[in-house]
Amino acid sequence: MPALALAEALQQVRPDIEPVLVGATRGVEAHVLPSKSYRFHLLPVEPIHRRRWWRNLRWPLILGELLRAGARVLDEEQPSLAIGTGGYAAGPILFQAAKRGIPLVLQEQNAYPGITTRWLARRAQQIYLGFPEARVHVRQGAHTELCQYGNPIAPPPEPLPEKAEAKLRLGLPSDVPAAFVMGGSQGARTINATVSAAVDGGLLGNVSLLWSTGPSHAQQLGGYASAGHRVVRGFWDPVSEAYAAADAVVARAGAMTTAELCAWGLPTILIPLPTAAGGHQARNAEALARDGAAVHLPESQLDPQRLASEILDLLTEPERAAAMKRSALARGHPKAAENIARHILSLIA
């Protein structure tokens, strides 16, 4: 998603540029990119397994095939610039691009940089950080420019929609507080189970609920939809309509999700994915919680009573919610994609 946001911004700033996307055959991009207008290549990459380490024994064979595929892409495209937005698919082909003298740009979304950014930081001409906390973990080269422009997202509309009108469009009462729960694009089993238990136990009172369950959980949880009270969907697209109606949010702490929530200024309870690579989500949540921009609720402490209590606190304490909104907006970068795109173009003649 950050790559797509940058591709769109680059074309808006300079229409003669053609972004070409590169991803993994096993990644979400294999499902997303065919529906977009950009040309793309999918490489035969497999994830690096941190717990089941023995699965990495195939990597010497995979790496050879991956490097050959990356070389073919670079030979075919002859790019003027290579931009990496993280992920295990990016490292090898970006390394090959840098070895060929192609200017290298890295965009790191998380508070603790991923392995690709840490590995290639010294070779990059520019590095763009989504979290200022990442700066101390990046060892850039002597001529690397380090920028903190925020994460590239689709910016909120200006002005923001009226919350009461947004609620009515979704069939919710305009004068009842609404909480938006999402566990990422695939949903989150633990969060879904906790929310369903809170609803069953009547712990959320009369709070309206917008619930993004994930496609695989949609059928099972669809029965919780209630006219005028709860809207349940497997996947929220566009998510902006839920953001516009929500008074508080419960979410994972992925970098792009947190960037969107800060740009919208939404009081949020972050429940990091405990298995996220390198503990990235926990670091993101910790950084925002320190700034007062979110509540950090580890999954190990999650239960229906605690979650309901945190939601109700945000919805019934307007001063606390307002302070959290100010802190979130202070960390928000709604125009990050455009600003990064304009600065990247300084590398292209």
Q: N-to-C SSE series? A: HEHEHEHEHEEHEHEHEHEHEHEHHH
Describe the main β-sheet briefly. 6 strands, parallel
CATH fold type of the largest domain: Rossmann fold
User: How much beta, percentage-wise?
Assistant: 5-15%
Briefly, what is this?
The chain is an alpha/beta fold. The protein has helices at residues 2-13, 29-32, 59-77, 90-99, 115-120, 163-169, 189-200, 218-221, 240-245, 255-264, 280-290, 304-316, 318-331, 336-344; strands at residues 21-24, 40-43, 82-84, 104-108, 126-129, 145-147, 178-182, 208-212, 230-233, 248-251, 268-270, 295-296. The chain has two domains: 2-154 and 334-347, 3-Layer(aba) Sandwich (Rossmann fold); 163-331, Glycogen Phosphorylase B (Rossmann fold), CATH 3.40.50.
Structural summary, described in words:
- This protein is of the alpha/beta class and 349 residues long.
- It folds into two domains: 2-154 and 334-347, Glycogen Phosphorylase B (Rossmann fold, 3-Layer(aba) Sandwich); 163-331, 3-Layer(aba) Sandwich (Rossmann fold), CATH 3.40.50.2000.
- It is 39% helix and 13% strand.
- The chain has 14 helices and twelve strands.
- It has helices spanning 2-13, 29-32, 59-77, 90-99, 115-120, 163-169, 189-200, 218-221, 240-245, 255-264, 280-290, 304-316, 318-331, 336-344; strands at residues 21-24, 40-43, 82-84, 104-108, 126-129, 145-147, 178-182, 208-212, 230-233, 248-251, 268-270, 295-296.
- The strands form three sheets. Strands 9-8-7-10-11-12 form a six-stranded parallel β-sheet, sandwiched between helices. It has a four-stranded parallel β-sheet with strand order 3-4-5-6. A two-stranded parallel sheet has the order 1-2.
- Strand 8, helix 8 (218-221) and strand 9 (230-233) form a beta-alpha-beta unit.
- The two termini are 27 Å apart.
